[in-house]
Design goal:
globular; alpha+beta; about 375 residues; eight-stranded mixed beta sheet
């Protein structure tokens, strides 16, 4: 049952909303979490947690249970079929988590929900937000069933189509790319590594190979006209055209599949009075580099710290600092993801030149190390 009042109302119970609530609850803040759907999703696009994100989650007691359920990938390789163009090693990074943790978003959400529950919190469902009126002392949020909650602050963590962002009157400018992608979780008979993230950059297009802890593999590929529900034959055709050729990988089962288009947008502001944005409500971009969920998780903890400080007596300018800083980080990450997407989706005629440039990068350890550190999020400290 919804309370009539709270200090912070978090709208959205995905990774960003959950981590915000956990960080607030740890500091004794009266926080309420609502979500518009009756139950959480068990499928998702996000499947990698980077080192800096794990460092942040460790402060909440959430990193170790997540690591125990994931696949630590210490290498990311870029290949043209069987030829390796570039190997990026994460195992010498200056962090307690020198790897990319390959783990489904659903597992990340479960770990965070368990942590929230242990702190005495819970997610209230289904409560779709339909109205928001802000004033000098907070905001009143109304729901589809007629309920209302008065909150000193409202966190919009409700995704790319954020109702909170729209009701707060915050613009979400950017571009919608013509590029489309297909995603599938498959079981496969293969000689490819199951502890390594591989990006195949073939003449026919990009294919991402990401092992998951249940023994399945997630593949993501850029295609012109992806099917809404890919099947085994479709996944096999992608692997045959873009994956290894020395030994064929055979798809034996398709567990789940989807399609999506790339968008690049950043909210005009991450704050409108008592309303603050975090995660996809504030920024959305290509999945290249696996930055989206990671950025949202780091947003959530930074926002929780700022809110807890203000509720403890710090000036409101602390929240302005959050909004300015995280929007700046988001703009940089969106640009980084755009550049990675262009590399992965280079037109066929230019792909030999791209591959030669990647081989050159492979021979320059300092430059390669900067790219690895950026992917790991260690520049966001």
């Amino acid at each position: 049952m919804l309370p009539s009042n709270c200090d912070v109302l978090v709208v959205g119970a995905g990774p960003t909303g959950l981590v915000t609530a956990v960080a607030l609850a740890r500091r004794g803040v009266d926080v309420t979490v609502v979500d518009r759907v009756a139950k959480g999703h068990n499928t998702s696009r996000a499947n990698g947690v980077h080192a800096r994100t794990l460092e942040v989650l460790a402060t909440l007691g959430a990193a170790r249970p997540l690591v125990e359920q994931g696949v630590p990938a210490t290498r990311v390789t870029l290949r043209d079929h069987d030829r390796t163009l570039l190997t990026m090693r994460f195992d010498d990074l200056p962090t307690p988590f020198p790897y990319v943790l390959l783990v489904p978003q659903s597992v990340t959400e479960k770990v965070l929900l368990d942590r929230l529950t242990a702190l005495g919190g819970r997610v209230l469902r289904p409560y779709p937000v339909v109205g928001l009126v802000a004033d000098g002392t907070g905001a009143r949020v109304s729901f589809a069933g007629g309920e209302t909650v008065r909150a000193r602050y409202v966190v919009g963590a409700d995704g790319v189509h954020s109702t909170v962002r729209r009701l707060a009157g915050i613009d979400f400018p950017g571009t919608d790319s013509a590029q489309s992608f297909v995603l599938a979780d498959i079981r496969v008979d293969t000689a490819l590594p199951r502890d390594e993230l591989v990006l195949f950059l073939s003449r026919t297009g990009l294919l991402v190979w990401a092992p998951l802890p249940n023994g399945s593999i997630r593949i993501v590929a850029e295609v012109d006209d992806p099917p809404e529900h890919p099947d085994v034959a479709y996944a096999q055709s992608l692997l045959d055209a873009r994956g290894p050729t020395a030994r064929r990988s055979t798809v034996t089962e398709l567990l789940w599949g989807s399609r999506f288009r790339v968008h690049h947008r950043v909210a005009e502001s991450f704050r409108a009075g008592p309303v603050l944005l975090a995660g996809d409500a504030g920024h959305v971009h290509s999945p290249a580099g696996g930055q989206g969920m990671n950025l949202g998780l780091r947003d959530g903890v930074a926002l929780a710290d700022a809110l807890a400080d203000v509720l403890s007596g710090a000036p409101e300018t602390v929240l302005d600092g959050y909004a300015t800083n995280r929007r700046s980080v988001a703009r940089e990450v969106v640009g980084f993801a755009e550049r990675l997407t262009r590399i992965g989706t280079t037109p066929p005629a230019l792909r030999p030149l791209r591959n030669a440039a990647l081989r050159l990068l492979s021979s320059r350890p300092a430059a390669r190390g900067r790219v690895v550190g950026r992917l790991a999020g260690l520049t966001d400290r």
